[in-house]
Amino acid sequence: MKKVVLFIALGLGMVQLSQAQSSEKPGGFGVRGGASLFNFSGDDVSENDYTNRVGFHVGGYTMLFMTDRLALEPGVYYSVKGTQNDDFADSRAILGYVDVPVLFRLYPAEGFNIFAGPQISFLLNSKFEGDFFGNTISYDSDAIKETDFGVAMGVGYNLPKGFNVQASYDLGLTPIFKDSDADVYNRGFKLSAGYTF
Q1: What region holds the Outer membrane protein beta-barrel domain (predicted)?
Q2: Which among 190, 115, 119 has a CA at the least distance from the CA of 157?
């Protein structure tokens, strides 16, 4: 995992350096965070089995404008995903990932943007919990795959003085369970606020 984090940091540094040397519209480094609403989804998931679970995400990004209206934005975020089950134990899955999206942002109008791009997520921890007779029972699980591939997409708006807001959807494309043929994916919404320096 240390090698993965080092690789990501080096990649962001190279993008930032190339951005500083670019004659195109300048971008910048920024921070972003907010609330997440995730669930398990797929052909093998019944709508009655799970409900959305609230989590959070926080991290940073760097932006390289390739034209006046098109920008490349790689980022690194810690993101808490999972699901909730409204059973007698109020059982839940809590999954912590490092998300690495590489987004293409299109600015069709001043301030407003739409974006999409691939995302790879590295599992940091996975925990399953349940409440029994007033006590929370928790255990770490190794049933979740270490990597998760997907697509991130959404809409954003740049506010004055470097602030921005966005709403996005993470579409997981690879089944998350090891040693299983079950069609179960991480999918959910993110509401974010950010600041570009």
Answers
A1: 7-197
A2: 115
Domains (range + CATH), the chain:
2-196 (2.40.160.20)
Contact 7, 39 (CB under 8 A): no
| Cα–Cα distance measured from residue 167 to residue 36, given in angstroms and rounded to the nearest whole number | 10
Query: Is there a contact between 31 and 62 (Cβ–Cβ < 8 Å)?
Result: no
The answer to whether the beta carbons of residues 187 and 41 sit under 8 Å apart is yes
Q: How far is CA 155 from the centre of its chain?
A: 14
Q: Looking at residue 147, what is its pLDDT? A: 95
The structure tokens listed for 150 are 């997907």
- The per-residue pLDDT for 14 is 46
Both tokens of 102, joined, read: 């590489």
64-118 pLDDT, tens digit each: 999 989 999 999 999 999 887 766 556 778 899 999 999 999 999 988 999 999 9
What is the spatial distance between Cα 79 and Cα 57, in angstroms, rounded to a whole number?
4
| Closest-CA residue to 84 (of 94, 74, 75) | 94
